[in-house]
Design a protein that fits this description.
By secondary structure, the protein is of the alpha/beta class. The protein has two domains: about 200 residues, 3-Layer(aba) Sandwich (Rossmann fold); about 100 residues, Orthogonal Bundle (Helicase, Ruva Protein, domain 3). Helix content is about 45%, strand content about 15%. It has 14 helices and eleven strands. The strands form four sheets. Strands 2-5-8-1-9 form a five-stranded parallel beta sheet. A hairpin with a 4-residue loop joins β3 and β4. α10 crosses α11. The longest helix is centred in the last third of the chain and has 17 residues.
């Protein structure tokens, strides 16, 4: 009986603390048409303290969506265009010599923001990519001998352009693993495209967004998300999904044995748990369901499974493999 009382109290707490999610959606609807999938996953990354890698062709409102999200939560936004001549100092900052004072002073780079859009991350060389990924992982930046913590919340949305691959530097698989989610964003529907055209094919002022929440409320929400109840059966389901990528034979998936080169790392199970809880929070629920796990599973796993040459020869992608696992592994 005490558990029921606790769950009821927790439910009321979640309901109260998650109210700002609906306010964010309403405000973003003023300027963003569709793209609910991308907005959902950005919010999951923000709430679960994870970063997002996004793949999509140009013109899908990636920059507009991310900058708009920063406005409605009243945080600092920076967009960094990655190019082959970019240097790590252009990203994190450097020391500048002040002749008047005869001393070096720190000039912080654009990484010092709450929400950072790293546009076309695969256009920059390995040193720049690694500087960004270190900041993402450590939540701090070292310039010369001084270490500066990055202000929370800190979310990186890195984009990869699937077209024009000439002169690009692919992210190593081990580094891609540091992103909580990898999204694939497609074109809008006909109805959405019509609405986009009607809204945007006008000159003059565009709708102005106003803040509906704050960074402090987002950080408080993270603490509340830690309290969301995850049943042992749901936790076991997450582990089963991850282990099915490593030992498919155990889960009646022997046909995948020759198709998976490397399965998902332990980061996958951690991130799947966090993302599922964040999804439950966005649905104003105090507990995680298997459906929360299934909704975010593809985004957590698509970049963590490395197919073999045999799979590539048969045009079988990591998404095909994840889809097969999701339909085969028993749902509690």
């Amino acid at each position: 009986m005490s558990t029921d009382v606790d769950m009821k109290a927790l439910g009321e707490k979640i309901e109260s603390h998650s109210a700002f999610i609906d306010d964010i959606y309403r405000e973003l609807d003023k300027v963003i048409v569709g793209q609910r999938y991308m907005i959902d996953r950005l919010l999951i990354g923000l709430l679960a303290d994870g970063h997002v890698l996004l793949e999509g062709v140009p013109g899908l409102a990636k920059t507009l969506t991310v900058s708009s999200l920063a406005k409605v939560i009243n945080t600092k936004f920076q967009r960094i265009q990655f190019t082959p001549d970019l240097l790590p100092a252009d990203l994190i900052g450097t020391l500048i010599y002040n002749q008047k004072e005869s001393e070096f002073t720190v000039k912080k780079g654009p990484i010092f923001a709450n929400i950072v859009l790293a546009d076309e991350i695969n256009r920059s060389p390995a040193k720049v990519q690694s500087a960004l990924l270190e900041a993402m992982q450590e939540k701090q930046v070292t310039i010369s001998e001084t270490t500066f913590p990055l202000e929370a919340p800190f979310l990186v949305l890195a984009t990869q352009n699937p077209v024009e691959q000439e002169g690009t530097y692919n992210l190593p698989e081990a580094q891609v693993d540091r992103f909580m989610l990898k999204l694939k964003v497609g074109y809008p529907t006909e109805k959405e495209e019509l609405e986009i055209m009607r809204r945007m094919a006008k000159t003059g002022d565009k709708p102005q967004l106003k803040p509906v929440t704050s960074a402090k409320e987002v950080l408080n929400a993270r603490d509340v998300i830690n309290e969301i109840y995850t049943d042992e059966k749901v936790e076991k389901y997450i582990v089963d999904l991850i282990f099915a990528t490593r030992y498919p034979d155990r889960y009646n998936l022997s046909e995948l044995g020759d198709l998976i080169g490397f399965g998902a790392s332990p980061r996958a199970s951690i991130n799947m748990n966090l993302a599922a809880r964040a999804h439950a929070f966005m649905e104003h629920r105090a507990y995680v369901t298997p459906e929360d796990v299934r909704v975010i599973a593809m985004d957590v796993l698509r970049h963590r499974i490395i197919p073999t040459f045999e799979a590539e020869a048969e045009n079988i992608s990591s998404e095909d493999i994840v889809g097969k696992i999701l339909t085969t592994v028993q749902v509690p």
